[in-house]
Amino acid sequence: MTSIASHSATTDQAVDDVATSARGFGHGIADPGPLGLGAFAMTTFFLSVTNTNMVPASVSVGVLSLAFFYGGITQMLAGMWEFAKGNTFGALAFSSFGAFWLSYWYLVDRGVLTAMGKDVDKGLGLFLLAWTIFTAYMFIASTRTTLVIMGVFAALTLTFLFLTIGAFATDTTYNKVAGWLGLVTVLFAWYGSLAGVMNATAKRVVFPVFPRT
What is the SS3 assignment for 213? Predict the structure, then answer.
């Protein structure tokens, strides 16, 4: 009888192990989405407000600390956890935009823009154009996520586009428009972050995100 009981316990444990394996490594990990969206939104909010000229231009340097720690490192960590969760879209989006904010910090803080000399506008424009292209194709992929995420990427694509035009044309009017578009992006992102954390905490849909899949 002892042998039968022992065999039964071993079999049950094996079944549990198989079930756990089937659920995947990231099964018990909290959703990193609200963190990634929150980090992206706050950093974008700060820079977008300065681009609208609602505050003095000298304030813009304050975004560097957010860009490094919250928009950069924290958002990239959220992207890494999305890999563990098996969310390809979230992993690519958060890791990439975490890298964007870190690269922005490096460009400004480490004197890279200054080193470009008279070609700084072209260099910055090319940098922003690359991110416009990336964001545009991520918008295409977002059409299979939720309407909220679609809103983030639609507004962000336009934001990058106007920043790119402003850099190449050396016209701050485009930067100001980009600032307002950036704030629209922030509203979508902060709402997505709020919905993610509130729905998970309440264990029911409090704030809908309107899934597309």
Answer: coil
Q: Do 52 and 25 belong to one domain?
A: no
Burial of 203 (0-12, 13-18, 19+ CB in 10 A): exposed
pTM: 0.88
Token pair belonging to 196:
């993610």
- Dig out the tokens for 112 from the structure: 């890279």
Summarised one tens digit per residue, pLDDT across range 106-158 is 999 999 999 999 999 999 999 999 999 999 999 999 999 999 999 999 999 99
β-bridge mates for residue 211, sequence order:
146
Shared domain for 77 and 154, answered yes or no, is yes
Do 23 and 39 sit in the same domain of this protein? no
Token couple for 31? 């959703």
Q: Which letter does DSSP use for residue 30 in this model?
A: P
Same domain, 63 and 100: yes
Q: What confidence tens digit (pLDDT) does each residue in 18-55 have?
A: 344 445 666 789 999 999 999 999 999 999 999 999 99
- Segments forming the whole domain that contains residue 105: 31-202
Q: Note whether 173 and 73 are same-domain residues.
A: yes
Cα 188 → chain centroid:
12
Does residue 207 sit within a domain? Answer: no
Q: Look at residue 161 and give its three-state secondary structure.
A: helix
The tokens for 160 are 């990058």
Residues 6+ away with beta carbon under 8 Å from 202: none
Does residue 213 lie within any of the structural domains?
no
Q: Which helix (H) or strand (E) holds 35?
A: helix 33-51
